[in-house]
Write a structure and sequence with these properties.
By secondary structure, the chain is of the alpha/beta class. 33% of the residues lie in helices and 15% in strands. It has 13 helices and 15 strands. The strands form three sheets. A seven-stranded parallel sheet has the order 9-8-7-10-11-12-13, with helices on both faces. Strands 1-3-2-4-5-6 form a six-stranded mixed sheet. It has a two-stranded parallel sheet with strand order 14-15. It is globular, with a radius of gyration of 23 Å. The two termini are 38 Å apart. The structure holds 1,4-dihydronicotinamide adenine dinucleotide and 3-hydroxypyruvic acid. The site of 1,4-dihydronicotinamide adenine dinucleotide has 30 residues, from α7.
Length: 391
């Protein structure tokens, strides 16, 4: 028998019971759910990652919808439990949903929401921060300073890499990858090489236009190239940043053999998902190539690092904080809550999950729609959405 977990209840008399497995930033999301007639139960148990058993006990015998987290294992067991409890709406508070078995949700008639767009710039900025920290050895230098080792300026102290005029490689040029590319190109005048299953004409046009602008100012123009293989990016780029989804095609995309193709002094950044890199192979590569540097936001066995990584000065490591800006986290909570509330109310799915702005303006009421449902087609859900109507 699972232990009863602590919950905080909002709008106890609400008609529809919605559970959030974690407290989420801001209060707008709670207001939107209660305005939609939901009783909201927020799990406040002091436990970082809830088990499947914990979540089953939160779902209980009657539950209309759940907002879950990317650390949780949402598979057949939980979706069957939610269906049995009368539920038909789930949303991850994340854009990535590799923790969710979408087919199992569909089999159980449950919609799966995610939170695209609101974290694009925030995540790209952290990838840029990791790139700079690795290129200019910021963390090593900070450690050195705090340890009282600085005795005065010398020409050889913490020499790193200049980004200007170098080539940035992006693997996965979707929303976040393209935003990161633009930051590195505009900020540091880097040339672009990218690899994605799809052509990013918008990104290509953007770089072309920026190159023309630079030319008009008599500056060296930036260039772009779409690679036909990931190997081409790894061989040519001075900085490689990974932004694909995690699925079977990207698991261990960066392995021992592909690391060996990279320049000895290259920088590798990962703010996508840990298993995109074979982390044990990366540890060996970093040991053998001290001038090769990485910036990692995500890890293969999160929250753990592969043995040895913690000792390597050529690795900058942060705990999955790429989406951690106040605006983004509150926006993620809002989108997740609306994915659940609008489904419970029977509203359609928003027609353009790449443009969720209308849901994020705190001063206006959101459209009558679920912002983003990844199995909308499989469930045969209506597409639509009408702005400026009250939920
Ligand atoms: N570290 C963090 O805190 C965060 C991590 N993420 C991760 O970033 C991922 C990307 O997010 P978005 O850019 O919003 O998604 P997106 O769907 O716009 O972009 C993903 C891109 O990956 C490409 N792709 C898929 N398979 C590929 C392959 N085998 N090789 C190369 N490219 C491939 C897709 O075609 C697409 O363009 C999420 O799925 C999530 O896992 C997202 C937000 C925050
Ligand atoms: O949205 C995601 O996929 C995240 O990793 C959140 O940080």
């Amino acid at each position: 028998m699972a232990k009863q977990l602590r919950v905080q209840v909002w709008n106890p008399a609400g008609k529809h019971r919605v559970v959030s497995t974690k407290p989420m930033p801001g209060t707008r999301w709670i207001g939107l759910l209660t305005a939609a007639g939901c009783r909201v139960e927020v799990c406040t148990e002091n436990k970082t990652i809830l088990s499947v058993e914990d979540i089953r006990s939160l779902i209980g015998t009657q539950c209309d919808g759940v907002i879950g987290q990317l650390t949780e294992d949402w598979g057949e067991e939980l979706f069957a439990a939610l269906r049995k409890a009368g539920g038909h709406a789930f949303s991850n508070m994340a854009v990535g949903y590799n923790n969710v078995d979408v087919d199992a949700a569909t089999r159980n008639g449950i919609s799966v929401g995610n939170t695209p767009g609101v974290l694009t710039e925030t995540t790209a900025e952290l990838a840029a921060a990791l790139t700079l920290a690795a290129a200019r050895r910021v963390v090593e230098a900070d450690d050195f300073m705090r340890a009282g080792k600085y005795e005065g300026w010398i020409p050889t102290l913490f020499v790193g890499n200049l980004l200007k005029g170098q080539t940035v490689g992006v693997v996965g040029a979707g929303r976040i990858g393209a935003a990161y590319a633009r930051m590195m190109i505009e900020g540091f005048k880097m040339n672009l090489i990218y690899y994605d299953l799809y052509q990013s004409t918008r990104l290509e046009n953007y770089v072309t236009a920026y190159g023309e602008f630079l030319k008009s100012r008599r500056e060296v123009p930036v260039t772009w190239k779409r690679a036909t293989t990931v190997e081409e990016v790894l061989g040519e780029a001075d900085v490689v940043s990974l932004h694909p989804v995690l699925d079977k095609t990207t698991y261990h995309l960066i392995n021992k053999e592909r690391l060996a193709l990279m320049k000895k002094e290259a920088i590798l950044v990962n703010a996508s998902r840990g298993p995109v890199i074979d982390e044990a192979a990366l540890v060996e590569h970093l040991k053998e190539n001290p001038m090769f540097r990485v910036g990692l936001d995500v890890f293969e066995d999160e929250p753990h690092m592969k043995p040895g990584l913690e000792k390597l000065p050529n690795a900058v490591v942060v705990p999955h904080i790429a989406s951690a800006s106040k605006w983004t986290r509150e926006g993620m909570a809002t989108l997740a809550a609306l994915n659940v509330a609008a489904k419970i109310k029977g509203y359609p799915v928003w027609h353009d999950s790449n443009n969720v702005e209308p849901f994020l303006d705190e001063n206006s009421t959101p459209p009558l729609a679920c912002p983003s449902i990844v199995n909308s087609k499989a469930l045969g859900l209506r597409i639509g959405g009408k702005p400026e109507s009250k939920l």
